Amino acid sequence: MKIDRLVSILMVLLDKRRIGARELADMFEVSPRTIYRDIDAISAAGIPVRAAPGVGGGFEIMQEYKLDRRVFSTDDLSALLMGLSSLSGMVRGDELVHALAKVRSLIPADRAGEIELRVNQICIDLSPWMGSGGIQPCLELIKEALQESRLLAFDYIAHHGKKTARTAEPCRLVLKGSRWYLQGYCRSRSDFRLFRLSRMSNLRMGEETFTPRDAPKPALDFTEMLETLQTCITIRIHKSVMDRVLDHCAYENFTPDGDEHYKVRFPFIENDYHYDLLLGFGAKCECVEPPHVRAEMRRRILAVAAVYDGEAGKT
C-alpha cells in the first residue's frame, strides 16, 4: 500500500502549505521514520520537497513549483493503475478506492485512451482460483491491527500438523506468490516470525497496544539455497498431465517418449513436499531414476494402498 500512501502524501503537500513529519505520521498511522523514507521517494521522483527546520517547520513543496500532470509518463500512470487495481481485488478498502481515483485524476484527457489501452493489456488478479474463503476477513482484521498497533492472538498449524497458540505484534502483510503471510513479533518465541494466513484460525484482535518494532525484511528469495539442494530426477509422464508438470519445470526439460508420453528432467528435493508432488500426478507419472528415489516412491505408494486395504475409518 506504499503507492497509495505516496500519492496521498503528495496530495496533502499540494493542498497544505507546510506539514510536519509527526502530523503526517499520525495521519497515515505510520512511524515518522516511514514518512521520511516516503519524502525521500517523492523527492527522488523529481518533485522538490523542502524540509523547514525549527518551530512550525515541516515539509513543503517549493512554492514556485506547480505539479504538471505530465510529470507522470504514460508508463508511470499505467503501472500505478495496474498495481492499485490488482491490490483492490484482494485488499478491499476505501483507501485503495481513493488512491485509484487520485491517480486517475492525474491522467491528462489527451492521454486517457492510450493509458486505458496500456492498463487493459495486462490483467492481474491475485485472488486464488479456489480455496478457503476465510482469507479476506483475516486480511481486514490484520490491517486494522496494523493501523492501531494492537496485538493479535490466533491458533497456528505448523509443520506435521502441530497446533500452537500464538500472540504476535503484527508488523506487515506479505504477499508471496499467491499466498498471504503475516510478519509479526511472536511473543511466545521472542522473535520475528512469518505466519501463513491459511494456517491461522481463531484469529482475534486484543485490546492491548504495543510500540511498533523495526522489523527486518522477511527473507523471500530462496533461489540460491534451492539450487544447492535441488537435483534433477527423470520422470516419465503421460501427455495428459504435461500442463501440470510445466508449472514446475521448463519445456526444454521434456523429451518425447513415444506418442503418448514424455521423459522429463524434473527438479527435485528429497522432502515430503516433492514426493507428494509426484504422487499427485497419480499413475500418469513414473519415477525412472535415480533408483533410490524410485524405491522411496514405491514405498510411499504401498503405504497409501495399505490405508485403503483396511476397514474404512481405521488408522
UniProtKB/TrEMBL annotation:
Single GO term (MF): DNA-binding transcription factor activity
Positions in coiled-coil regions: none
Gene3D superfamilies for the chain: Winged helix-like DNA-binding domain superfamily/Winged helix DNA-binding domain (1.10.10.10)
Keyword Iron attached: no
InterPro entries, alphabetized: CBASS_pafABC_assoc_protein, DeoR_HTH, HTH_11, PafC-like, WCX_dom, WH-like_DNA-bd_sf, WH_DNA-bd_sf, WYL_dom
Pfam families reported in the protein's UniProt record: HTH_11, WCX, WYL
Stretches assigned to the HTH deoR-type domain: 2-57
Keyword hit for Transcription: yes
Keyword annotations: Transcription, Transcription regulation
PANTHER family listed in its UniProt record: PROTEIN PAFC (PTHR34580:SF1), PTHR34580
Name listed for the protein in its UniProt record: YafY family transcriptional regulator
Organism name: Lawsonibacter faecis
